[in-house]
Structure prediction request, 369 residues.
Amino acid sequence: MNYGVTDEASARLAWARLSEPADSVAVALIERFGFHDAFHIAARGGTAPNGKVVDRFTARLKDLHLDRDREICERLGARQLLPGDPEWPTALDDLAVPPWCLWVRGPVDLAAVPSRSVAVVGARTSTAYGNHVAAEIGAGTGARGFTVVSGAAFGIDAAAHRGALSVEAPTVAVLACGVDRVYPAAHADLIAAVSRAGGVLTEVPPGSAPTRPRFLARNRIIAALATGTVVVEAGLRSGSLNTLRAAAAIGRPVAVVPGPVTSMVSAGCHRAVREEGAVLVTDAAEVVDLLGDIGGDDLAPAKRGPERVQDQLDDLPLRVWSTLAPFRSKTVEEITVQAGLAAAEVLGALGELQGRGLAELRLDGWGRV
Prediction:
């Protein structure tokens, strides 16, 4: 029985149904025999490259109905993507084990996403601070032409998606379940909005439930699909750091947003800066500076403190101005002692300060304006 698997394309779709993403036995079979022949070896309980009988996939054969999967996609307005298709994002091929296929819903052109996009991920149990920063990054990068990529989870993911939606920017959600399912269920409206503004995608077939291994597997897709990854709030064991490491492993820029040093929900971010080479960013402008084009409008403006009039003073006028007080007058003799200058130097400096409107001559001496 061939189960409708007659070529490499149908075999890829079949393997997505039979195997967990990046399953080591499936990967070994496929690397040696190709998708088509490896499927038929697995379907008849053949032998793996290590000599063991392949029987871990046979239990799922009864649920293998490629025509049914296609019908579900047509009903949803979704589409199946395979490597080589015009819309296939070739950036995913940088992964050690790229997805075998994708199911996509929404108007997004996935092939264009990796050129100017940012993955914004972080803690599900985020703080108000983290949600605010994630939304600001989502909105700020979206307004500058970036597609915001995340996972539609509670917390930081949701805040980043909503930030992009608030400025009508495209955003993409990578799911750990089938394209026909909504997870978390409480985000039904959010995921629907994301699918209209950009798209939702997954490497597991319709009907698939979200599981922890699938969440970890989908993180690598988020990392590879985006130009770079930003983590906003992550504990020391956060799955978001898995996304950051997946991005770094394939040479993508990675960054984190700092939090209070007393906050355990930001401890993973701080460690990523200290030990894993992550760049510290504080707002959307710095994210665009890191991931955008070199030079031009993508450069972040330099951050400086407020300009003060005395910042423009040379050394001698500044030393004299520092001795003056707004509510008490001082004689030239007092100023020479406190500033450590000669009377002529003090008088010259006072003249300049008076001209700048920073000092005034009073009846009983000099004072600061």
